[in-house]
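--- STAGE predict ---
source: upstream dedup step, 1 unique chain passed
mode: sequence only
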Amino acid sequence: MQMHEVDEVMQVSGATSANAKLAEGWKLLAVTSAGNGTDDGRTLVWYVLGRKLPKAPPKLPTAADLARANEGL
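--- STAGE serialize ---
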């Protein structure tokens, strides 16, 4: 999966969290390391995941819709 194919992105820390998301159908986009947002000096491994959102199938016109559209032709 490439970034232009992604509808939703999330970032999790830790292999357990990443594996849970992969099991839910998310795709791994990148692995990075960065601080944990505090001043304690710890560095965490961050997993960036993405997925496509389900799309509803297009609504096709019914026979009645087509008949109405063709009235008076």
